[in-house]
Amino acid sequence: MAEKYVQTLERSLDVLEVLAHAEEPLGVTEIGNRIQLHKSTVHRILQTLCYRGYVERTKGNEHYQLGIKIVELGIRFFNDLEIRKVAGPVLNDLAKLLNEVVHLVLPDDGEIVYIDKAESSHVVSMHSKVGRRAPMHCTAVGKAILSTLPEEEVRHILEVKGMTRYTPNTIVDPEVLFKELQSIKESKISVEKEENEIGIICLGTPVFDYSGRAIGAISVSGPASRIQEKGIERIGQEMKKAGEEVSTKLGFNYFQKL
């Protein structure tokens, strides 16, 4: 049977993905070890990617990191996303109203990806990055999305991705999580109290498209003391309004779906 992929291209994509997930620039040997490729093969791939601008050398030409071309492609992708265009003004309004950081995320392969962010005016704020990935079981936005999925799909995600404990508050029992997801499904608001990061409280609400499918979620997050002072219930109410506004603009009819 003929191969359905081009091996050289697949290996090149493996190299890009390794660099994308690395915390710092990597050398040829380290890249090869991570994707089980010989150094000579990795070196040839890197030479081509550097020539095209998708990878660049750093640290005395011995290490590699993603290049500006990748950034250009990413920006083009984000700018073309309909949900980002629709949600952007709503995120900004919500951030101004609550004076906390607001994020928009999309689900991808059992995780969430942060695709947009509206800042607060606080000096002490969230140091998050657009493009970052995060687990679903311990984030407010992740749980907001999980609450809309069939149970068997959620169980599959948990089985594949696991339920890593990040803090003492992280839920690592699937049955405890399912009980919480049922509550979120009814209220359309999820609350994550220091489950992913100590000292941070985050609230999430799902965003639906015209078909009623949850295609993303909105979050508001900040230092636990500040969020509690402003009132979790009040923040949740404003978030729910924002989520409904974005969903309606994407063609979702709340009255029809109720």
Automatic annotation (TrEMBL):
Keyword rRNA-binding recorded: no
PROSITE patterns, per the entry: HTH_ICLR, ICLR_ED
Source organism (scientific name): Desulfosporosinus acididurans
One Gene Ontology biological process: negative regulation of DNA-templated transcription
GO terms of molecular function: DNA binding; DNA-binding transcription factor activity
Domain IclR-ED: residue ranges: 69-252
Domain of life: Bacteria
InterPro entries found in the cross-reference section: GAF-like_dom_sf (IPR029016), HTH_MetabolicPath_Reg (IPR050707), Tscrpt_reg_IclR_C (IPR014757), Tscrpt_reg_IclR_N (IPR005471), WH-like_DNA-bd_sf (IPR036388), WH_DNA-bd_sf (IPR036390)
Domain HTH iclR-type residue range list: 6-68
Keyword DNA-binding among record annotations: yes
Keywords assigned: DNA-binding, Transcription, Transcription regulation
PANTHER family: HELIX-TURN-HELIX TRANSCRIPTIONAL REGULATOR, ICLR FAMILY, HTH-TYPE TRANSCRIPTIONAL REPRESSOR ALLR
Function: May be an activator protein for the gylABX operon.
Protein name per its UniProtKB record: Glycerol operon regulatory protein
